[in-house]
Write a sequence for this structure.
């Protein structure tokens, strides 16, 4: 009986909040942590590249072994035998549900954490798992309604567009929904609530990080060097995903210049106007590039102008955009960013680099939302006067590796592109110094306002 | 201009940090506790495995070089006030133009000579934690003496490591000498709910040691002896000024300073726990051994030490905070432990949780003078503004939600407090 009690206490961590995390081999990059990291990474490698090892039947052959265990569940949902992606989605959702309940018990005294986690569980279970399965079983295109471009980098791929546009009104609805999500719904919500509405309330990657990743959140490096590398990696990936989408759409329209309501010439005008708009904003809105040195500002703006000119030139000479081989770039991005970075490193490295490796260093969605949050949002973390005792709990338990204490001990509010608004810094603060808030526009916000 | 600061706790480091903002003077900071500044209140979290020692260093490791602040490891032994020199225990000599004493404090003794025994210690310094780390591995039963903030921190630390201990409190309630009665009762009940072995109204009058001078048991007033091979004495701290008695710097309980934190020697100043103000600002104690006071004094001195006509030190509205296991505590302004006729108070307490709000006002003119909260967070700026601008309690109550700093979606209790006030007034 006592051993059951002890075991359940360990599993559910009743009352205990992060005590002894630096003593445990699992959570201090000890042997157990490394074993788990290797296990997870190899799990992803097998799933992505060697599904036959897990028992996936080749071309119409029945499944065997591990994947065959999930055939009955898959038949129940969509009528066919399990694919490796069904098994992955099913286990992913199951882990989020179990660890989500554990998380809620751990933070049961904090309503923000409870409501936020219920939201994550709901979106994972319904939007990511059940609704797409229902769509598929009704012979409609299946789509995760909350997974938007550019995280969902294949939304604008030719095969996806063709699939959606050949599926009648429902497909058209999905097309319009996907575009509205990226270009209307997301900026509006981010303006009012910061990127947390997505990253720590809705997103599936965030869902796993917040629940299964919670025991590893303190392993995120909060040094300034890590912050530097964060910016060096995440913005180029954002650039890359935009470039890839542009080249794919370009080759798509080249093959079907007049087939759709939007023609190739429409598309060219839209892209060039968009680019010109970004360059103009960069020049006019001084505040937007605040913090950059004069030369990097000039560098970014000239890069934009060069891009504009070369794109316009390649189109006027009937060549692919920037002469890039769209298929090669797509293959490359799918392999290195889609599979290796977001999967193998993103989840496999939880026990080594913390729970948000992908979200911090890789996710192009987080990059876009972050830029909006930094410059055009009402979200910030407010610091309560001079109450900070510089203890460092906030910085240690920030999964995004933000050195929260550096701001808190100066009494400065925190407005950072990477903050996903999980609220754990405020929860672990022993002196009530931090609070997540939506106030007036947070740009230039150095002081406390109400 | 060479400014030497003795002590690299929050007070000394605040002097250096703020001085660097205003001046390019040469700065040297001396300590024998740790080469780098760490957060003292966070030492408990290192013991509990919540953080590593490097996580409780508030400034990045390159801060000192970048800001040209020289760190010296060593203990100051003597001050040659005539030649403006300071002598360290390793023999080296530093000359100064201005000297800042940020010496900190030390655990008070019960007066039983107990610190001469092995296994009896206070809980204050980095060395104290290191000692505790060692001894906690082999001990059978520990004793914590003293019902204050450090005692409850130690209790939390021992619980997290599964160390068996008894928590001896002299008073009837925990915290009765710094909390109003209702709050003290709530905190006491919270401690009891944690299933810790806490004994009230027990006074320790002696210790028993074995042949190797190692403590064996504690002796109670009742004559009862309780086995204990580790004893932590946490009955408060006092300025650590013993070694100054032989110098020209004037001391009483602490280093005596004027309104500019200057000692009797014009080029020597003092900040933080070691200070005793000759004429404390109205409503403040002459000795305040608080993190926040140390920081405020340090920031003031760093800004004004090179000033020709500095304004006097003005700490502003009093505030403090603490945490008793899971229950946070904040206080702003004047909240006495017992309420005489001249005080009015509105108090609300959650029926089941450990949450309470107390507002205190002047019974004569209804002016809001202070508040304290348990399990609820208040905004410092708002409370300060109300106290400073002498708002009436009847003006504060309807706007109380502006002071709330709890996380989003938290249950709010301003309505209950207003109802209590309206019912008592009418």
């Amino acid at each position: 009986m006592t051993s059951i009690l002890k075991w359940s206490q360990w599993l559910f961590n009743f009352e205990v909040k992060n005590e002894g995390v630096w003593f445990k081999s699992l959570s201090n990059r000890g042997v157990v942590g490394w074993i788990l990291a290797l296990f997870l990474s190899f799990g992803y490698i097998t799933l992505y590249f060697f599904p036959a090892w897990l028992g996936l039947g080749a071309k119409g052959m029945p499944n065997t072994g591990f994947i065959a265990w999930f055939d009955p569940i898959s038949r129940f949902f969509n009528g066919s035998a399990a694919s490796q992606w069904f098994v992955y989605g099913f286990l992913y959702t199951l882990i989020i549900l179990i660890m989500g309940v554990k998380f809620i018990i751990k933070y049961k005294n904090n309503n923000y954490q409870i409501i936020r986690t219920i939201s994550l569980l709901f979106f994972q279970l319904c939007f990511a798992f059940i609704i797409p399965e229902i769509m598929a079983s009704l012979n409609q295109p299946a789509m995760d309604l909350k997974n938007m471009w550019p995280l969902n980098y294949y939304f604008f791929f030719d095969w996806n567009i063709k699939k959606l546009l050949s599926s009648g009104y429902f497909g058209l609805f999905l097309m319009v929904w996907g575009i509205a999500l990226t270009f209307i719904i997301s900026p509006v919500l981010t303006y009012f609530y910061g990127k947390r509405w997505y990253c720590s309330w809705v997103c599936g990657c965030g869902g796993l990080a917040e629940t299964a990743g919670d025991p590893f959140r303190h392993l995120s490096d909060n040094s300034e060097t890590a912050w530097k590398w964060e910016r060096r990696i995440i913005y180029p990936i954002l650039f890359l995903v935009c470039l890839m989408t542009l080249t794919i759409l370009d080759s798509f329209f080249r093959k079907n210049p007049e087939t759709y309501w939007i023609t190739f010439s429409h598309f060219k005008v839209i892209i060039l106007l968009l680019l010109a708009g970004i360059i103009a904003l960069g020049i006019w809105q001084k505040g937007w590039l605040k913090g950059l040195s004069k030369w990097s500002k000039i560098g970014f703006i000239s890069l934009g102008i060069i891009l504009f000119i070369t794109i316009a030139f390649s189109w006027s000479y009937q060549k692919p955009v920037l002469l890039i081989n769209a298929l090669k770039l797509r293959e490359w991005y799918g392999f290195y960013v889609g599979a290796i970075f977001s999967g193998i490193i993103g989840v496999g490295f939880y026990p080594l680099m913390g729970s948000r490796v992908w979200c911090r260093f890789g996710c192009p969605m987080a990059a876009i939302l972050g830029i909006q949050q930094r410059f055009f949002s009402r979200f910030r973390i407010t610091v309560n006067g001079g109450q900070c005792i510089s203890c460092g709990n906030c910085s240690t338990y920030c999964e995004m590796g933000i050195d929260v204490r550096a701001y808190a001990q100066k009494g400065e509010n925190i407005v950072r592109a990477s903050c996903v608004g999980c609220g754990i810094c405020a929860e672990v603060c022993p002196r009530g110094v931090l609070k997540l808030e939506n106030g007036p526009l947070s740009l230039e916000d150095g002081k406390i306002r109400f | 201009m060479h400014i030497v600061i003795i002590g690299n706790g929050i007070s000394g480091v605040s002097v250096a940090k703020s001085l660097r903002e205003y001046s390019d003077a040469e700065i040297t900071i001396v300590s024998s506790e740790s080469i780098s500044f760490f957060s003292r209140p966070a030492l408990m979290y290192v013991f509990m495995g919540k953080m590593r020692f490097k996580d409780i260093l508030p400034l990045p490791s390159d801060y000192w070089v970048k800001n040209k602040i020289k760190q010296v490891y060593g203990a100051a032994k003597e001050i040659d006030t005539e030649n403006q020199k300071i002598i360290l225990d390793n023999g080296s000599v530093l000359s100064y133009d201005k000297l800042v004493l940020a010496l900190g404090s030390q655990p008070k003794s019960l007066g039983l000579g107990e610190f001469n025994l092995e296994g009896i210690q206070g809980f204050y310094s980095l060395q104290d934690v290191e000692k505790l780390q060692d001894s906690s591995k082999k001990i059978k039963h520990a004793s914590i003496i003293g019902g204050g903030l450090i005692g409850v921190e130690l209790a939390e630390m021992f619980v997290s490591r599964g160390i068996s201990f008894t928590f001896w409190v002299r008073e009837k309630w925990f915290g009765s000498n710094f909390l109003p009665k209702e709050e003290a009762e709530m905190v006491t009940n919270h401690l009891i709910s944690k299933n810790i072995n806490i004994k009230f109204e027990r006074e320790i009058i002696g210790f028993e040691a074995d042949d190797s001078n190692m403590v064996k048991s504690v002796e109670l007033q009742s004559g009862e002896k309780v086995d204990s091979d580790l004893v932590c004495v946490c009955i408060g701290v006092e300025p650590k000024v013993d070694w100054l008695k032989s110098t020209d710097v004037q001391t009483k309980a602490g280093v005596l300073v004027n309104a500019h934190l200057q000692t009797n020697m014009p080029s020597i100043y003092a900040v933080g726990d070691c200070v005793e103000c000759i004429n404390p600002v109205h409503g403040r104690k002459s000795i305040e051994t608080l993190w926040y006071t140390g920081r405020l004094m340090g920031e003031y001195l760093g800004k004004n030490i090179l000033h020709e006509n500095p304004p006097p030190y003005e700490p502003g509205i009093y505030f403090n905070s603490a945490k008793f296991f899971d229950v946070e505590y904040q206080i702003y302004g004047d909240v006495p432990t017992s309420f005489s006729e001249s005080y009015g108070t509105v108090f609300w307490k959650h029926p089941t949780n450990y949450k309470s709000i107390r507002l205190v006002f002047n019974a004569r003119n209804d002016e809001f003078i202070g508040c304290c909260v348990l399990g609820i967070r208040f905004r410092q700026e708002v409370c300060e503004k109300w106290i400073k601008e002498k708002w009436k309690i009847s003006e504060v109550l309807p706007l109380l939600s502006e002071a709330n700093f709890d996380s989003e979606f938290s249950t709010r209790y301003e309505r209950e407090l207003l109802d209590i006030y309206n019912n008592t007034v009418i």
